[in-house]
Amino acid sequence: MSKKNRKSIAASLATATCSLLGNTVTEPVQAQEEPGWDFNTALLYYSEGDGRVEDISVNFLANRYFVDDRTLSLGFAFDTLTGATPIGAIPFSGPQTFTTPSGASTFTTPADVIPLDPSFLDTRYALSVDWEQPLGRLFTMSAGLSASFEHDYDHFGANFNLSRDFNKKNTNVSLGVAISQDDLTPVGGAPIPFAPMLDVDDLSNKRGDESKDVIDIVLGVTQVINRNMLVKVNYSFSDSSGYLNDPYKLLSLVDAVTGDPVPRLPAPGAVGPLHEYRFESRPDSRTKHSLYGQAKYYMSGKVLDASYRFMTDDWGIDSHTLDLRFRWPIRDSSYLEPHFRFYSQSHADFYRVSLVDGAPSPTYASADYRLGEFDAITVGLKYGWKLAAGNEMSARIEFYKQDGDAPGNQLIGNQLTRDMYPGLDAIIAQFSYRFGR
Amino acid sequence: MGSPCELLTQVDDEALARKLLDVVAAEVWRVEDKFSRYLPGNIIAKINNSNGESVEVDDETADLIDFAATLYRLSDGMFDISSGVLREVWTFDGSDRLPSKEAVSSILPRVGWQKTSWNRPHFGLAPGMEIDLGGLGKEYAVDRAAAHVTALTAASSLVNFGGDLVAAGSPSKTAGWQVGIDATEEGSGRAGHLIRLKHGGLATSGNARRYLQKDGVRYSHILNPVSGWPIEGAPRSVTVAADTCTQAGMLATLAILQGEGAETFLEEQDIRYWCLR
Hints:
The complex is a heterodimer of chains A (437) and B (277).
Chain A: H1 3-6, H2 9-21, E1 30-34, E2 36-47, E3 54-66, E4 70-82, E5 85-86, E6 96-99, E7 106-109, E8 116-117, E9 122-135, E10 139-150, E11 153-166, E12 171-184, E13 190-191, E14 206-207, E15 210-226, E16 229-242, E17 250-254, E18 277-279, E19 285-299, E20 302-313, E21 318-330, E22 334-345, E23 355-356, E24 373-386, E25 392-405, E26 424-436
Parallel strand pairs in A: 17-23
Antiparallel strand pairs in A: 2-3, 2-26, 3-4, 4-9, 5-8, 6-7, 9-10, 10-11, 11-12, 12-15, 13-14, 15-16, 16-19, 17-18, 19-20, 20-21, 21-22, 22-24, 24-25, 25-26
Chain B: E1 5-9, H1 14-35, H2 43-48, E2 55-56, H3 59-74, H4 101-107, E3 117-119, E4 122-124, H5 134-152, E5 157-161, E6 164-168, E7 177-182, E8 191-205, E9 211-214, E10 217-220, E11 237-242, H6 245-256, H7 262-269, E12 272-276
Antiparallel strand pairs in B: 1-5, 2-4, 3-4, 5-6, 6-8, 7-8, 8-11, 9-10, 11-12
Helix pairs in contact in B: 1-5, 5-6, 6-7
């Protein structure tokens, strides 16, 4: 169409239509896009069994759509955690006594089991707000804020993402940045790194509140390969600095020959631990690099989603994650989705089973099993179905099994006869309901 | 019309409601009987079998031919009601069976509005040529049926023939009609967009299910009448809101005929539209 008469086409068409229809129309069109709402709710139950962590969480996400593809998202999550988690001390043939984080009392763990901290109880509220809109025809931007609150931890964050389409929307490149500032107010105060666990009411090994900052940058490319397949590749960079310790975790101080915890006597008239423990110490910065690749393949109604992530950081941890999902539609309105995930990580450089009495103190040390060497497998199944009104429900169940090893060269004496790495079996059940107008 | 046709109306009187239904049904059948290329014995059949002889047409047919001529001019030759014969070599069934270049070239001599003669009320076609009003017949029928409704009542009504529709009645007295436009070609059950239509027409051009695909290239079913081949880079569907269903439908079609430039064209016309790529 020649450029000069382009703009008048609608007007010319209006005139021509008037002639055709005999000028019966006197009112102009009134058509307005209605903003719509979309709600996604989920209830999740997580349980590690054996008296360990149990979590019930409720998630709620509301999307409000405005004209011209602008969206406001509001999220709210509520978690309640109970149960116990490994404290970092090694198991041994007798009971062990620890002072609680508040310093107000002690608790005792039985012989021959990995000691768990039973005061692991928390309620967390999280909020998020995000705004997304197109910028011109090819760019999309989103910006958001997030915050979460627990009795000993607050998080505040902001994020921004910009993406652009190329090649008739077959290629999308995006860049995202997220920053967060977290404040820690551990019960009793954050322990001084490597300080010993002391008697009840002695908080001289603790100092006040701490904080940490995190910045995450993600650069991604999504490419449509053909009608059935699309591929995504991401590079992520993450840098954390500040207080990166877990304030409730410690290491056992062990005898250089037997490998058993070194005994300790509380002060006269005081109650306290009966063995020596040292609070952990991690570096005050952590830099991570990840490379992620994902492919989605559509095969006449079924979808295979496969992804792999490699992560490496300056704590010495390398990890691999392989994730496979297969969505299998059943008739028109429901689907089954089996899920398989394999995860493997190497231990942090400063991961220690225990600290050896008399040996020079390492710069950093932690016995947190999450920094150890382990593999984990998740196997799950999800079933989803559409309701008559176009709303969707889904239910999923997953089994998680994590198993690891303490580094062989770190085990001494009686430690060699025991299972020093706490494995983990967990079950996850989730129900979700999505509805909108 | 090849689609479900419905009338939605808000009147208190059941007898009036039934009469409105009768009037709309009668009008859509009348338009279909008179202008469908599938029916023998109507004016279109007479023109298509005229074998080079000029045919005298009535006022309504003449108005439609005038309109088609205007569309031919406004679209620089892309909207051409004589291009229907190309369907003899093109079957859009989702397969990879494209016609040969020779097959397409052999049909092209029978296509071209410039080869027709129009001297109202006499219309002439070269032998072997045909006209097909399928590209504007449904929208025209919608507006015609709506005119019959408004002649009988000022109540808020929606005439909907398979997704090409018009809202009639006084916009100040109505909350309007909620019309959903699918977000994806597979009809997710949730409207990608929800429009509140108080007055005016809505029409969609394009069909996400009719296409051919070969060697990674998707060929939409909208053909370029000059080359005989599908328009390249067209959106899968375009929905437009305009004063009448006819205008909405023609703007949507003209946009698709722009191929890659569909969105630019729609932006320039300063109208409400929804494009699915």
